[in-house]
Structure formats: C-alpha cells, structure tokens
Amino acid sequence: MPSYSINVGNVELVSVSDGFPTRSPLMPFPDTTIEQWREFPELMKENDQIGSRYGTTAVRSGGKLIIVDTGLQAPDGILMEDMKAKGVHPEEVDLVVFTHLHPDHVGWNLTAGKPTFPKARYLIPQRDWDYWTKPEVVKDAEHIRNQVLPLKDHGVIEFMGDDYQITDELTAVSTPGHTPGHVSILIDSQGERAYILGDVAHSPAQAHYTDWCPIFDVEPDLSRKTRHQVLDMLEAQGILVAAGHFPDPGFGHFVKGESRRMWQGIQVRVTN
Fold this sequence. Notes:
This protein is α+β, with helices and mostly antiparallel strands. Helices cover 20% and strands 29% of the residues. It has a single domain (4-265), classed as Ribonuclease Z/Hydroxyacylglutathione hydrolase-like (Metallo-beta-lactamase, Chain A, 4-Layer Sandwich). The protein contains eight helices and 18 strands.
C-alpha cells in the first residue's frame, strides 16, 4: 500500500488508513438516489457501490508526533500496519487528538485494555465528552464505554475548549453538528495553511450536494449549516484539505467548476 505525505510550511501530514469499506451510498445517505450518485462515476464501483475510507492523519509539528483520530479497530483493521509501513510508530506518538468520538474515530485508543499509544496524551473536545458521557447516551454507546472512558482511568485525557492550541501551528476549531462537540484542525505554518476536516463532510459528492446529511449526523440542521460555512471558506481561500473518509490519500481542495463545486483530490509524494 502506498504511503503519502505532504508538507504545509514546517508541518508534515501523513495519510494513514484503517480500512476501505464498500457499501451502497444509500446506506449512509438514504435521502439520495442512485441516479444522483451516478453523477460521480469516479466514486462508483461495481453494482452501484461506493468505496469509503477510515482515514487518520499523522502530523509532525513543533517536534511532536500527533495522531488525529484512531480508526475503527475492526477485525480486519489495518491502522497499525499502515502506520508502521509509513514510518509512524505508536510508541513515538506524543498526542492523540480527536475530531469527535464516533466509533470509527476512537477504535484504536486501547489495545488489550492498555493505551495503544503508551506515552501519548489523548485530547478530547470537551463538548463531545459532555454529550457522549450523558447517562442516556453512554448506555447505548459501547464504543465509549470500551475505548474512551478507560482513558480517564489511565489518567491520559486532556480536554479541548474552543480554539484550543494543540501546538503553535495547530488549532482545534469548533465545527459542530456531526456531533455536538465536533472539531476540525487548522494548520498554519510559514504562511501556508491546511485543514483536517474530520466528518464535516463524508463524501466528495457533498462538495456539490452540500445539503446532504448522512445518518450519522447527530444534529443534521447544524451539521448542514456548518458544512456550508466550512466548505465555502475552504473553497474561497483555496486551503488544502485532509478528509478522512474521502478517497485515498484524502488530500485535495474544494474548487469551483463550471456548474458546481467539486472535490479535486491530489496525489502526493511517496514516503520512504
């Protein structure tokens, strides 16, 4: 599997993945039609299926190695193997940062009951923690009980408020709706910028169909509003985007085409 990295000023981003599921697009987007999805032949596979990706971004900034989200840890999950193949070693990770606390973003927090990243601090958006630990929510959220709450017992959690400064070059910015405390990561280094999207958008099709909300959105109306604001900003300012559920490696730009906004993915250099 190829490994990709890109530099943003003094910051290095490395795209790593935990798997590449295939499914009907109508599962996450039941209010859409196959005819609409066929407008994006580059996304379609056999039998009107689409591919997705459980993406994670490794970031080197300010002398720290940072992992943004930790995948799903399904039985066929590949995150550990993919990280090591790309020179990202769990024992060297200083910080684990969560865009939000859905199952496919917290899956490798622990392995056999111990933190997978043994020297790391785990940075959680305060508002997402507050939501997911409500008794009426956590009782139905096995992934929180198994992969998030034990981190508190290990004493490795730090909470992020609004505009939390992760390093001098990385800031967590509030992008709520997909979950109540969802954040994205703004990278600003040496006059260059990039944006780790999280789940503000799940598919390149949302570049055009920005109103589309997947079933995973906790607050669809707010998610839709946030998505319009964020994608409009990213398009207008030409900011590089790292999108975890977009086709590998997930780097690209939102650009204005002749009749619609589009996702323009880019390939980047292979790391050694």
